[in-house]
Write a structure and sequence with these properties.
This protein is mainly α. Helices cover 88% and strands 0% of the residues. The chain has one domain.
Length: 103
């Protein structure tokens, strides 16, 4: 898997898991209004475990996404610095060649 695909997967995983976390928090708010017989302690325990897993996955994928973006930005900066150095070198060499040919 290349970096671009991995970055996209990490981004969308972070987005989806954040939305799932939001839905879990909404379920926490709505469970007390349930009229049918539920064992609330077991429901809260299960939702707590699922919420912990989802939040861990969300945090990990967000960190991976930001790390890949940072790496790509640093690589682009390094490449632009190299391109600038080569351009300056080529321009100075061509001006020196013009002086030697016409001088």
């Amino acid at each position: 898997m290349d970096r671009t695909t991995l970055r996209g997967v990490a981004f969308w995983t972070a987005v989806i898991t954040s939305l799932i976390g939001l839905m879990i928090r909404a379920m926490y708010a709505l469970i007390p209004f349930a009229t049918f017989g539920l064992d609330l302690s077991s429901v809260y325990k299960l939702m707590g475990v699922v919420s912990l897993f989802v939040e861990g996955l969300s945090s990990g994928s967000l960190l991976l996404f930001l790390g890949l973006v940072h790496y790509d930005l640093m690589t682009a900066q390094r490449l632009s610095e190299h391109a600038r150095d080569y351009l300056i070198r080529d321009l100075t060499q061509s001006s020196q060649e013009n002086k030697s040919n016409h001088g």
